[in-house]
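Justification of resources, computational component.

The compute hours requested in this renewal are based largely on the per-chain cost of generating structure records like the one below. Each record pairs the submitted sequence with a full structure-token output. That output is archived, and it is also reused by downstream analysis tasks.
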Amino acid sequence: MAQLDGGTWRMADHRGHVVLVNYWATWCGPCWEETPGLVRLSRELGPKGLAVVGVAIDEGGREKVQRFVDAFHVSYPVVLPERMSQMEYGMAGVPTTILVDKEGRVAKTYVGAVRQADYEADVEVLLAETR
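The structure output for this chain reads:
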């Protein structure tokens, strides 16, 4: 997927890591609530093997997405799904976050805002698993 900063993000590049894929939008109030916790979680557990990626589902709002990223000091990659793709329209609601284990399997799906502590507890369990 194309990153907001122009790079490319691929799940395959993160095999062996625990990955949180967070679908969000600038117009989503609960997304505003949970983003600071995701930023902290990425900073604290990234060195231990957690990769966080944000998938912005805003329509045509690259500038709005960048303002959101700047305002929250989002340090993890933010990607923009291709227009009309299943990634753009496949969510039951936002935020939706998918937790993926080190083997690339979906471990858990969260719909709605989640507290940092709840993500952290689930991530820690997966980080502790050996291959």
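The longest helix spans residues 29-45. The mean pLDDT is 90.
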